[in-house]
Amino acid sequence: MAKVAFIGLGTMGFPMAGHLACEGHEVCVYNRSPAKSKRWCAAFAGDSAATPREAAEGAELVITCVGTDDDVRAVVMGCDGVFAGMAPGSILVDHTSTSADIARELAQLAAERQLGFLDAPVSGGQTGAENGLLTVMVGGELAFFRRAEPVLESYAKMIKLMGPAGSGQLTKMVNQICLAGLLQGLAEALHFAQRAQIDGLAAMQVIDQGAAQSWQLQHRHRSMLEGRFDFGFAVDWMRKDFSIALEEAQRNGAQLPVTALVDQFYAEVQAMGGGRWDTSSLIARLK
Questions:
Q1: CATH superfamily label, 170-286
Q2: What are the angstrom distances between the C-alpha of 164 and each of 72, 137, 167, 202, 260?
Q3: Which of 18, 65, 134, 209 fits a 20 to 30 Å CA distance from 156?
């Protein structure tokens, strides 16, 4: 069992930190809103800290799961950041979906402090976090990965080291690029079924047994047909991820026309007031 600091108790982080505590790890949490930390401590066995630095003191593994590149910098850097509290030899694991640039930057800064670093974005959404079935894509050194992997298994069904620092974030971009086409295709298919006046639920039952099968189809078709989107991975966060992938594509020369188009469709959903809706809300703009 490890002594772990978990920074960020949002939709994903709250249950992820909970799985660590349930597995018997010694967990200290920090959240920008102290009320969230208090609620977590009431639900699970663990402590909370007033600053990221205090949470990180004495921890073998420090895990961050926040929102953006700037949010990561805010909890890692400075006199109250986790770097200030981490002891040489400990490891920082960042589950935030960020740019590959900040992952490489943090790896360098960690090395200068005799710390380990892994960029480790996740996929699986709120349901995956709550059920401990996330996929974790990791960038960093093998030695750090081997030490962190047994702890990360508390909330993951799949963990894979993809390469050096930044590789985890690049793999997450691949994941989000795939989702762009899947979600738009599903939205259009369901919209077409409704306009063609066939039973959308029945159509999905048939299609789910063929080549069009996907996680999104299995888990989102019913709520899409019902127009329910008040759950899951928010459109605002998907657009953040798309912006990172599109910027990386400009640098490496990759062509992402579908991703760019779906990003604009999500902008329309935001204009409809759906910034916090689940990403399956693409169908809403077709009605």
A1: N-(1-d-carboxylethyl)-l-norvaline Dehydrogenase; domain 2 (1.10.1040.10)
A2: 19, 11, 6, 45, 27
A3: 209
